[in-house]
Amino acid sequence: MIWDSGTDDGKDYLKMVDEVRRLVERFEGLNLSKDSEEYEILRKANDVLQTSMARVEEEFKHMLAHNRQNFEPERLSFRSTEDDSLDDSSRFSFGDESVDDSIQRDSISRGAEVYVMDLINPQVIPDLRNIADLMFDSNYGRECSQAFISVRKDALDDCLYILEVEKSSIEDVLKMEWATLNSRIRRWTKALRVFVRIYLASEKYLCEQIFGERESVSSFCLSESSKASILQLLNFAEAIAVGPHQPEKLLRILDMYEVMVDLTPDIESFYPDDNGAYLRTEFQDVLTRVGECVTSTFLEFKNAVGSNVSNAAFPGGGIHHLTRYVMNYIRTLIDYSNSLNTLLKDHGEVQDPDSTSSPDASPAYGEDSSNDFSSLCPMGLHFRSLMSLLESNLEEKSRLYKEDALGHLFLMNNIHYMAEKVKGSELRNVLGDNWIRKRNWKFQHYAMSYERSTWSSILSLLRDGGLHHSGHSGSISKTLLKERLQMFYTAFEEIYKSQTGWSIPNSQLCDDLRISMSLKVIQAYRTFVGRHANNINEKYIKYSADDLENYLLDLFEGAPRSLNSFHRK
């Protein structure tokens, strides 16, 4: 190739070709006779010019192809940082404790601003521009543009390869397992930002360097050289948008939506005229469909929460995996509040779930519910509705327990967990303090229901009713007293045996309930034994008040125990 011998040789060649061009231009301005010598010179000059244009076009393509500078800045490498945090929760499975802290949004390279790099060795840019000028001046502009597009189209395709974006049909994407799709979406989200903000910005700069003041040519070349790559990226987003709206995809699809929204001004800037109108329109259409997919997937998420079915009671009455998953999920969704408010704004009427009366509704906190609800943002309205669906589902699950007390404990644990998650995060600003107050009242209500279910009948044994001899109003029956104590001990041992296996994961809540029980049970026991000390033989006192108080501390540890080994002989 001429330029391989050095820039000077190339310049000399262009100078000679330009002289031929000028000769043709001058002769064509004359009214030459076909029989004249000048006409023959013109014909030969045209042949030389045509041959020369073919030659400089090859030089142009060779120079573009062999002076590429595709490099991957270290901060753009995704290979070692992939964290498939949602894989364990695929198919909206709530059976894995690890979901509690694993749900996170991706950073999606949020700091990646427009960064222009030299896609072609800067030393050859002047030569490329000189060739382009000559070809356009010689009326070979279309050939020059097509030469540029053919080389740069392949170069941008290689950029997608560097970014690990694989070519897949919509059918291929729809067949992918979630673990694979999850990884591909994350890679796509980062790749789109890098491709637009870095490679596309740099390609635009390259076009401007080579084609100079020919803005329409620069615009055309950028649109055509990048079209296949942009459409490949959009094709993947389209496939996700038309696929099934499975709840586990929501965070990833929101990432896709937000990066597209974020890049919309860039796309409009890179394709401002008719040359890029098709790509602008395609980008906007796919963005709209991805947004619709977000809305549908969120609503499907709500439906999945409401319809989640359990065939067996949750062991120990602790915090259900559904509760953990949903609360951590919506805490993450807070990061997407702007997008969700935009997308959910005009999507269906949402009724205030707290305005409907229920047997457990708190009269204290329902008065300003309607005003509180009406002031919520669209996302807040849907989150309230989602919380109501979760609570209703938990109430259904509580009915699976054979013991009413364990059902109450289960609801206490889960409602308390929900309230604490909201209180300690940005969800507080979304759902409102009134919502938190009502859940605080609810879990306290379930705690009292637990206490009544467990201890009311047992504490009745420590009352004096029925202990007197028939016909002797002032005389206490020692036999009945002994039987009462034995009945109390038997009932206490049964409670100990079962409820040591129950669970209250929150230590503060556990301590509060133990203290409340201790105040009622131990006080009643001390009073009963003290009142009848003269009528009860010491050998019938199986446990001291301090013993019982210590045994109450063993409850709710999640491991069943027995008092048999502690019995005094």
From TrEMBL:
It comes from the Eukaryota. Residues 187-554 form the Exocyst complex subunit Exo70 C-terminal domain. The keyword Isomerase does not apply. Pfam families: Exo70_C (PF03081), Exo70_N (PF20669). Residues 353-364 have a biased composition (Low complexity). Signal peptide: none annotated. Residues 346-371 are annotated as: Disordered. Keywords: Exocytosis, Protein transport, Transport. InterPro entries: Cullin_repeat-like_dom_sf, Exo70, Exo70_C. Belongs to the EXO70 family. Component of the exocyst complex. PANTHER family: EXOCYST COMPLEX PROTEIN EXO70, EXOCYST SUBUNIT EXO70 FAMILY PROTEIN. This is Exocyst subunit Exo70 family protein. It comes from Tanacetum coccineum.
